[in-house]
Design a protein that fits this description.
The chain is mainly β. It is about 10% helix and about 50% strand. The structure holds thymidine-5'-diphosphate.
Length: about 130
């Protein structure tokens, strides 16, 4: 079991009309959202990087997807398969997304704007960076 992430239940109202889920910054999420992006039409594994500072809250509004999280020594695999559950990543972890089923749609709420310099794109570099940080 590694640390640096948390699965969070997303408040939801589900009735005969359907479902509605919501996220409030400062309530459910301990960071201010500065960027939202979404991933869809998955064809091949994605991710394959770590972030030095970025915090993210990731949820799957449709379908299911596996997310591998690795701290440079150990790893866990999380399945996101419900619009009512999100993955909060608050420490630098290597991540890879795979096993896409039922046309997953992934939404990512991020604590900062896109910054190329926040990315570590090689697993070996990530392990080195972790050992020095
Ligand atoms: P990339 O980080 O490779 O996606 P993933 O790791 O999820 O597979 O992003 C693909 C491209 O999109 C890359 O050129 C950077 C760009 N991009 C932005 O311009 N803004 C963003 O917010 C994100 C997430 C990516």
């Amino acid at each position: 079991m590694i640390s640096g992430y948390k699965l969070i239940e997303i408040p939801s109202f589900i009735d005969e009309r359907g479902g509605l889920s919501f996220v409030e910054c400062g309530q459910l999420l301990p960071f201010a959202v500065r960027r939202v992006y979404w991933l869809y039409d998955f064809k091949k594994a994605r991710g394959g990087h770590a972030h030095k500072k970025l915090q993210q809250f990731i949820f799957c509004t449709h379908g299911n997807i596996d997310i591998l999280l690795d701290n440079g020594r150990d790893h866990n695999c999380i399945t996101l398969n419900s619009p009512n559950q999100g993955l909060y990543i608050y420490e630098p972890l290597w991540r890879e997304m795979s096993r896409f089923e039922n046309d997953p749609q992934l939404v990512v709420l991020a604590s900062n704007l896109y910054q190329e310099e926040d990315y570590i794109n090689s697993y070996e570099d990530f392990k080195q960076w972790k050992s020095h940080s």
